[in-house]
Amino acid sequence: MKKAMGMKRILLMITGMTLLLMACELETSTNGDLDGFWQLTQVDTLATGAQTDMKATGVTWSFQGRIMELRIANKQSDERPIICQFSHNGDSLRVFNPYIIDRVKDDTKITDVTPMQCYGFSQPEETFFFQQLSSNTMILRSKYLRLSFRKY
Question: Which of 117, 123, 131, 134 is the 20 to 30 Å CA partner of 143?
Answer without folding.
Answer: 134
